Amino acid sequence: MKTSAIAWDVDGTLVDSEPLHLRALLDTCRRYGLDLSAEPADRFLGAGIVEVWEVLRPRLPEGTPREEWLAGISSFYREHSASLQLREGAEEVLLHFERLGIPQVAVSNSHRAIVDTNLGLFSRFPGFRFSLALEEVPAPKPDPAPYRRAAERLELPPAEVAVVEDSPSGLRSSRAAGCYTVGLRTPAVSLPPETANVWIERITDLPGALDLPTVHCTDRNPSNPNQEPD
Fold first, then answer.
1. Which site in 9, 102, 179, 182 is 20 to 30 Å from 169, CA atoms measured?
2. What is the SS3 string spanning the chain?
3. CA angle at residue 157 from 152 to 162, to 5 degrees?
4. Which of 47-51, 173-177, 226-230 has the lowest mean pLDDT?
5. What is the pTM of this model?
6. Between 40 and 84, the higher pLDDT residue
């Protein structure tokens, strides 16, 4: 498998964002008179916000404006973003691939405001070549459109784009787009092995899974393994 670029999912993969997404959902629905506090905490784990809207729409007051409801979730998320944390090893691995010269992009099922909030957590990583948010693709994951568009913008065949995902919808999207799909295992989501080309337990396992130099996934210069991190 030739890895010419890496496309990262963001929520749950690079950023431990699921708890805040749940808080935003509960708070926003409560404002519309819908109490979800008795629902299982993992009911919407890994689901895109459009999927969540379709499930909850019949339980919301008739005529609830979708865009207003979505804006409420985004607003709560941004206002409480101080609670967000990066996944262990995320920034180190992004820096590692940057120094190997491998293009990296972010492909999210969240709105642009949330994507920018999440990506703002990275203090040392120079940044992705580009990021795609929900508003910028014809259809959300699990549709293949997000990863097809990413491959098109990278000017690469999908098979040369390694996608890192942790959710059922993201994995289906990547596979349907023809990308090389890397599944990141999480304790909360159990998925069949065939939903990904390869599985990893930790983000720091990714270079080895792609047969790329690992350099122990530290912030070291690949051309100088003895260099200490900055």
1. 102
2. CCCCEEEECCECCCECCHHHHHHHHHHHHHHCCCCCCCCCCCCCCCCCHHHHHHHHHHHCCCCCCHHHHHHHHHHHHHHCHHHCCECCCHHHHHHHHHHHCCCEEEECCCCHHHHHHHHCCCCCCCCCCCEECHHHCCCCCCCCHHHHHHHHHHCCCHHHEEEEECCHHHHHHHHHHCCEEEEECECCECCCHHHCCEEECCHHHHHHHCCCCCHHHCCCECCECCCCCC
3. 95
4. 226-230
5. 0.88
6. 84
| Residues 6+ positions from 69 with CB-CB distance below 8 Å | 28, 32, 53, 60
Report the distance separating Cα 113 and Cα 123, nearest Å: 18
Q: Which two tokens stand for residue 114?
A: 């949330």
Give residue 102's identity as a one-letter amino acid code.
I
Cα–Cα distance for residue pair 45/23, rounded to 1 Å = 12
Averaged pLDDT of the chain: 90
Q: What angle do CA 39, 68, 76 make, to 5 degrees?
A: 60
Answer yes or no: are the C-beta atoms of 24 and 53 closer than 8 Å.
no
Question: Amino acid identity, residue 35?
Answer: D
The count of residues in the chain is 230
